[in-house]
Amino acid sequence: xxxxxxxxxxxxxxxxxxxxxxxxxxxxxxxxxxxxxxxxxxxxxxxxxxx
Length: 51
Fold this sequence. Notes:
The chain is mainly alpha-helical.
């Protein structure tokens, strides 16, 4: 399982560059992230930084 900081870095890269390492994430998480990107939901990135 990835640590929270690793998930955050992976999410940031996915949002900014569109790159997603499928070997590092659970299939359901990847599907969720793609859905978020499709509807342009990046607000979770802002919330994650305020944790």
